[in-house]
Amino acid sequence: MGKYVDLRRKGDSTPRLIVALRTELHRILAEAAIAAGAEIVTDSKAIGARPDGTLELEGGKTCQADLVVGADGVHSRVRDSLGLLSKLVELRDGCGRHLVPRKESDGVNSQRLESWTGGRRIGIAPASRDYNYVFLCCSADDTEGRMQQPFNLAAWVGRIPG
Questions:
Q1: Is 118 left (phi over 0), alpha (psi -120 to 50) or beta?
Q2: CB under 8 Å to 97, separation ≥6 — which residues?
């Protein structure tokens, strides 16, 4: 059985979904790092790391760190440079994640909703005062549903009319 974090409020039987904008997460992490004395260097592409905390940058430059966080995606060059990958598994599904401008009628604490129809899943949750987070997931063989760039609205409205 998979593990999950139960985000229910005390006495509430409905699980909560909390969404944080990536820009806000970056801002919070950067502020905490600067407060702790870290130097933030931008426009430097990390291509690898070493177990001693050396970060390797494109162009041959290196820098030393107490902590290196390799948050560079599923095909992480930082992780792979350390030989940490034991297995990469194709999940056999497709998922689009979108930020949609909020309407005034959405309210500040909009309800989090999720719906399953056949092999498709759609969910919505407030992400900030300005945006709602919308996710649309389907199986790998659902070519029409996986077309998320540009987003194929008709393919989803026809299958999940509500």
A1: left
A2: 133, 134, 135
- Alpha carbon distance 101, 53 (integer Å): 40
Between CA 85 and CA 75 the distance in angstroms is 10
Structure tokens at 108: 């500040």
Do 36 and 146 form a contact (C-beta atoms < 8 A)? no
pTM equals: 0.61
Q: Looking at beta carbons, which pairs linking 144-153 to residues 24 or more positions away fall under 8 Å?
A: 145/94, 145/120, 146/94, 146/96, 148/94, 148/96, 148/98, 149/96, 151/96, 151/98
Instruction: Please report how many Cα atoms fall inside a 13 Å half-sphere around the Cα of residue 5, on the Cβ side.
Output: 4
For 122, the 3-state DSSP assignment is strand
Query: What are the tens digits of pLDDT across the range 129-160?
Result: 888 888 888 988 888 888 777 777 888 887 77
